[in-house]
């Protein structure tokens, strides 16, 4: 039986233990208070796994750079496999929120982005204490920052209409062009690209005929030879396509194999196997629009590219996008200025006014629709060593010479967004 003094000592020990546990919890909370959890939701398996892994390298590198600076906000990146399916992406979203993520990152597929926007809008209304932001680096279907704009969604890539307008700067001067073949993936983005291409061609090159327009299943076509045969038989001098990933690589391979000798005006022809697939057949014929290209002729641009290649030296890992770096820089800047990692409304309001520069590339967020505004460039595929082509792509021996630079003020387009904002 314990004496009164023994009981008192035991009570004091228990109290000290509880206080210690409490202080440890407070210390852990204080440490965690400076951590902003990011969830990358992408195809990390399946037919588009290469695109997801390529994005992961970019985002991870950007997070490493921000954290190495030692600011008051630390970024923590977690990855979730959507397997290229919208339902899987929505499951990943729920898991990420349960794991404490406050920022969702996604971009490869406008259909998935659309599903995430709807789900996040509903979640944020239903659970205001667990609100999340959605940062989009590649889903470029125009309505996402127009009639379907959301306070919780920020797009850091130029949307499809902006990219088509940049390509039109080159198409206007392509006097040999008499007929084009439009082909794309059969979902909202692919449909938007073909629709906008027709409209801008009619307005700016009414002399050019659209000889055919075709949509194909996304990620399910293994043999593009039948499409390539039709492209060649149409007599078109050029193809306009928004295809990406394997759907682009297999298309250009098939076109080469059937002897198609025309140009490809692309959104993504500068990476993920497309240059190697075309080989010499693509020299002077494959044109791509981007926010940045490795052969932009500035010292800052070269330093940026060399820094990435130092971090990821394998040729097959050569897939770097400036906009993804600017996106993470913008998020870090907004969180620092908002002085919070948990109040996403405060972070969003700072993101609306963000203006960032990295290695000479500048971008700003337009608050009206959350569409990032930045310079765009158009490049022509050439052999490495050609004037203007210092760097090749993925060790292929082919790179992209910058043939057009479009300043942000010219690339900017009006918006129909009527954004509902939280009180």
From TrEMBL:
Keyword Signal: yes
Coiled coil regions in record: none
Signal peptide (from-to): 1-30
Domain of life: Bacteria
Keyword Cell membrane: no
Residue ranges of domain Leucine-binding protein in the record: 36-382
Keywords of the record: Signal
Similarity annotation: Belongs to the leucine-binding protein family.
Protein name: Branched-chain amino acid ABC transporter substrate-binding protein
